[in-house]
Design brief:
Structural class: mainly alpha
Strand content: 5-15%
Helix content: 55-70%
Shape: globular
Strand order of the largest sheet: 1-2
Distance between the termini: 35 Å
Number of helices: 7
Number of strands: 2
């Protein structure tokens, strides 16, 4: 996935660095104790709520591998000009299809659907 922010292309990667960064951003006392991160879980849940802050966090985490990263204000400006629903769906699809996040994404999606039925 590539985003053009301030006329510069940024290749977003969804590897171990991405997962570690999300785990840091969504760390809780329980996740610290268990050593099991909740970053992907929290991100997917918040995407379903169309939370624009999660989009900012996802972009920053997926740029963690880059030497030159977009600034927070540049990402915010980029998101203000986006269709948030479309961007949310793009990230959900990417997480569903990325090898490291696919299984957890499927599990979270299943849980969300079950909770919506109740």
């Amino acid at each position: 996935m590539v985003l053009n922010i301030k006329n510069k292309d940024y290749e977003l990667k969804f590897g171990f660095g991405f997962i570690r960064e999300l785990d840091k951003r969504y760390e809780t006392e329980d996740s610290k104790k268990s050593g099991f991160g909740l970053g992907i879980y929290q991100a997917i849940t918040r995407l379903h709520l169309f939370d624009p802050i999660v989009l900012l966090n996802l972009i920053q985490a997926s740029c963690s591998h880059l030497k030159s990263k977009p600034s927070t204000s540049d990402i915010e400006e980029f998101l203000e000009g986006c269709d948030i629903e479309e961007m949310t769906n793009d990230f959900l699809e990417k997480l569903k299809n990325s090898s490291l996040t696919k299984k957890q994404s499927q599990m979270v999606e299943k849980e969300i659907k079950q909770n919506m039925k109740n």
